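Team,

Forwarding the record for the chain on the shared tracking sheet. I've put the sequence and predicted structure together so nobody has to dig through attachments.
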Amino acid sequence: MKWLDSIPMALLLPLAIVLALAPFTPEPHLWEKLKLLAAGNLSRPIDIFDLLLHGTPLLLVLLKLVTGRRGTDE
C-alpha cells in the first residue's frame, strides 16, 4: 500500500475532519448518510456519493493509524 504512504497525515487529517463535519449545520452529511445506511434507506445515488465523499478521508486516516503508516517522512 505504497499509495497510502504517499499521503501525508498532515494533509489528510484536516481534510478528514472538515469533510466529516461539513456542512456544520443543521447536520453533517456523514452523520446523516450513516443514519440512512443504518436504517436501510441509503438508495439514491447522490446519497451514496455523499457517503463516499465525506467518509473516505476519515477511513484513510483510520487505515493509516491502524497500519502504522505515517506518511512520506518515513
